[in-house]
Amino acid sequence: MTVVDRLAGLSPEKRRLLETRMRMAKEAAPSSTGPELRARPRPDGTAPLSFAQQRMWVLDRMDPGTAAWNIPTPLRIRGALDVAALEHALNALRERHESLRTTFAERDGEPVQVIHPYVPVPLSVEDLSAVPEEVRHDEMERRVYAESNRGFDLARGPLFRAGLIRLEPLDHVLTTVTHHAVSDGWSMGVIQRELHALYGAFTAGLPNPLTAPALQYADFAAWQREWLAGERLASSLAYWRRALEGAPPAMELPTDRPRPAVRTNRGDRADVELTLAASQAVRDLALRENATLFAVLLAAARIVLSRWSGETDLVIGTPTAGRLRVETEGVVGYFVNTLALRTRLDGDPTFRELVHRERDTVLDAFSHQEVPFERVVEELKVPRDPARHPVFQSVLSLQNAVTQAQELGGLQVEPEHPGYEGNKFDLAFEVHETEGVLGLVADYAVELFDLATVERILRHFRRVLEQGAADPDRRLSRFELMDDAERGAALALRGPARDWPFAPVHEAFALQAARTPAAFAVDAPDGSRSYAELDARASTLAAELRARGVGRGMLAAVFLERSADLPAALLGVLRSGAACVPIDPTYPPERVRWMLEDSRAAAVLTTNALAAALPATSSTLLLLDAVEAAAAADPVAPDTTESSPEAGVREGGLRVVVAANSFARPAEDDTEPSASSGHDPPADRALDPADLAYVIYTSGSTGRPKGAAIPHGALANHMRWMQDAFPLGAGDRVLQKTPVSFDASVWEFWAPLLSGATLVMGGPDAHRDPAALAAETAERGITTLQLVPTLLRAVLDEPAFARARTLRRLFAGGEALPAEFARRAAEAIPALEVVNLYGPTETCIDATAHVFASSDPSSVVPLGAPIANLRAYVLDARLEPVPALVAGELWIA
User: Fold this and answer.
1) Starting at the edge strand that comes first in sequence, how are the strands of the sheet with 733-736 ordered?
2) CA gap 649, 128 in Å, rounded
3) Most buried residue among 81, 165, 565, 660 by CB atoms closer than 10 A?
4) Side-chain-side CA neighbours of residue 147 (13 Å)
5) How far apart, in Å, are the Cα atoms of 662 and each of 449, 640, 656, 692, 716?
6) Which has more confidence, 324 or 311?
7) Residue (of 530, 833, 579, 614) closest to 694 by Cα position
8) d(CA 643, CA 714)
9) CA atoms of 326 and 349, how far apart (whole Å)
10) How many other CB atoms are found less than 10 A from the CB of residue 703?
11) Mean of the pLDDT values across residues 617-631?
12) Distance CA 74, CA 66 (A)
């Protein structure tokens, strides 16, 4: 029957599909068949290596004896096995195929194949029939696994070995293992077919039924070296240079664990299936688009890998049989080649358009498939990286050959899983067709991925295929990888909901001062203050500000060094109704001028000594030492209700308009003392959660500092969460060492003052001298400390840190926290709790928190979960949630 006759008998759909595949196969064929492929004499028993073998030899030299390139094929054989006939058949295979008795040697600095004369090899038999039945199968699997993962010595060989395990008289397992340097997947099919034919003949007492091979792999290797030379090689390599020029050096997929410096090639497998209807829809799409099923699968795989990696220029590998001449179909050897398929996803194409791009990419690549991948790698001068496969780290293959039941001379034969762990890539996708159903399989590197992660990637692969087949005009940006359950989980990252009554921090402090008036609130190098003293001092400053017309809706700058007066100044500003603008006195004058002008600060709280360092400003100056002297002379507090804004105009030259205040009733709490201490201005009650509490100026990545404005509601929520999550008490001492211009200083001030603990003001070098900081922590009985990881590392090296036995909690923030630092801190001080805090200044100090545990596998301590009443989202450029592990932008609400 001719091809035309066969086409005439098919349905129109199948006829069109077959015609498409025939045309594509013709177009993909190499443009030249090359010189004659013939047998060659080998008088000294050696032959050159093929290009593929040469790379395999180099890889083995880098990792001698690795099992990564083993090809194990264990078979379960049930029935009356003739062991002698099986041994005879295996030896006949060795005699027929030179590859099965080849090793590799180095001659004059170059590797060569050494083809050994045929010598029969006895078949080793292990008898497990006496092993108790309940453990026999496990023992068999253990031995099959051990044999499958036992490495080869390429110089000594043999590179093909076989062993038989007897479970019962009628139940055996035959394990054959070859090295990839002398075999490939196609070759194993040749070996099994010939083994069946030979065993069948020998059990029947017949001679070898197979004709002697006309060619051996060594003939192909010599032919390849002749053909791939000169203009032919130059032309093909030029194509691959153009195709891969400028391609990313690696696809960086997010992984569950850091990539090791050297790959171990350990792998495992995961799989999912499409429904029969979805499988048919995918095939129908390929038919309609005049493309192969592989092109559709490649388009879907590329979308998934693009979303996971965040890249739009991707190279994916695909294996090919590499047998471009019909004469090689029955030859055992390493023919398989791998093609690098590069497609860009720019322009947000539709799925249909991407399938067309993939179709063209595949056709071009297959028309130049005669160049071994190893030669392409050499041409591109890809640097060797023992941590990853060169050019591409993910591959896709379609296995749609019909699988038939096997038998061996009338015996039932079925594959046995080898438990083989070899894996050459980060991810290797295989798609199988079984009775019309597409099965998606992924072999993956266990040193990088967890099973759950790879299963999620496969589910995304399936969803993209389903969506693409149902709506091929959908643009890539509109594909949804996650189902409803996974999307819901991605949106569920939120802190505990807490309905706390609003209480500004200065009110909360007043309540604490009423509870513990005599307790030490501040311990500073220039003196200490009790809660009552700090409360009184803050009220005096608030009254002075009010007298100068500073109040709600305004900002007041605090320009002070670390001292006992610093927390009083911050409290005083808030009690006046204004918001704080903390400014570090060590800042350059131009930066200070910019902050004062940009914030339009109505007043600046400072001292006589520091006022001289201030640039010229129209802001009212409130000199704390002058206020203290006046208060000492007249201890009666001013009546703030009678204050006139004209005082501000008279003393500071600043015209101030004071807005009318509405008085809101504070949250009722019968268990708390009254917040009114006799010093608080009545305007405290008028504050709203949306009113500003402070403005922190960031470092100015755009060239100028930017003010992040934080409302009272956010500050009150943060401090209430912190006291709930990490409570402080009367015996705690918190070191304030962060410069006041950084938001980390905010919680250092308020956390102790709202809980009855002591705020310990650090010395002038506490934030920059590791030795001084470690000594202060140990000598001043600090219980709670916050450090940026960079400073933490330096402090850990100080002997004094180990003496800080009072320290019970260490907060880290501002940078990624290496787990090594956290572990060292916990080891230095037993029972120390290490907490990783994260949050942009705009979210009020911290947005997430994570308590370090020594069992955490990550090399970097996680950011953790959102704090109370906050939500966190990881979103892509379309503001859609991304799957777990996938990189995106962190959005905080």
Assistant:
1) 527-530, 520-524, 758-761, 733-736, 784-787, 809-812, 833-838, 848-851, 865-866
2) 102
3) 565
4) 27
5) 59, 16, 19, 16, 20
6) 311
7) 579
8) 30
9) 39
10) 6
11) 87
12) 19
**pLDDT > 50? residue 133:** yes
> Position 348: which residue type?
D
Question: What whole-number distance in Å separates Cα of residue 164 and Cα of residue 172?
Answer: 7
What mean pLDDT value characterizes the chain?
Answer: 87
Q: Which residues fall within 8 angstroms of residue 130, CB to CB, at 6 or more apart?
A: none
Sheet holding 110-115, edge to edge: 46-48, 110-115, 102-107
> Are residues 817 and 800 in contact, defined by beta-carbon separation less than 8 angstroms?
no
* Strand partners of residue 338: 319
CB 578: neighbour CB atoms within 10 A?
A: 27
pLDDT of residue 16: 45
Q: Which residue has the higher pLDDT, 468 or 625?
A: 468
Task: Classify the phi-psi angles of 583: left when phi > 0, otherwise alpha if psi is within -120 to 50, otherwise beta.
Answer: beta
pTM of full prediction above 0.70: yes
Residue 618 in 3-state DSSP? coil
Q: Which of 465-479, 706-720, 752-766, 854-868 has the lowest mean pLDDT?
A: 854-868
Q: What pLDDT does residue 421 have?
A: 63
**pLDDT of 291 above 90:** yes
Burial of 603 (0-12, 13-18, 19+ CB in 10 A): buried
Distance CA 262, CA 385 (A): 8
Percent of the chain with pLDDT over 90: 73
Cα–Cα dist 94/161, whole Å: 10
Average pLDDT of span 471-488: 95
Q: What is the mean predicted confidence (pLDDT) over 352-372?
A: 94
pLDDT value, residue 703: 66
End-to-end CA gap in the chain: 71
User: Cα-Cα-Cα-Cα dihedral of 213, 218, 223, 225, to 10°?
Assistant: 170
Degrees, nearest 5: CA angle 672-678-682? 90
Q: What is the pLDDT of residue 82?
A: 96
pLDDT digits (tens, 9 = 90+) for 738-747: 999 999 999 9
**Burial class of residue 110 (count of CB atoms within 10 Å of its CB; 0-12, 13-18, 19+):** exposed
In the predicted model, what is the mean pLDDT of residues 432-452? 94
Other C-beta atoms within 10 Å of 258: how many? 12
Burial of 752 (0-12, 13-18, 19+ CB in 10 A): buried
Instruction: Say if CB 75 and CB 193 are below 8 A apart.
Output: no
What six digits make up the tokens of 428?
Answer: 């290797």
Q: Is the peptide bond before 158 cis (omega within 30 degrees of 0)?
A: yes
Q: Measured between alpha carbons, how far is 605 from 662 in angstroms, rounded to an integer?
A: 26
- Find where tokens 């390599």 sit: 237
What SS3 class is residue 62?
helix
- Looking at residue 616, its amino acid is A
pLDDT tens-place string over residues 496-513 = 999 999 999 999 999 999
CA angle 191–193–194, rounded 5-degree value = 65
Residue 2 has a pLDDT of 34
Residue 681 pLDDT: 41
Residue 713 CB: number of other CB atoms within 10 A?
18
Q: How far apart, in whole angstroms, are the C-alpha atoms of residue 140 and residue 525?
A: 75
pLDDT at 57 (0 to 100): 92
CB 857 within 8 A of CB 257: yes
CA-closest candidate to residue 744, choices 699, 696, 690? 696
Residues in the chain, how many?
893
For the chain, state the CA radius of gyration. Answer: 38
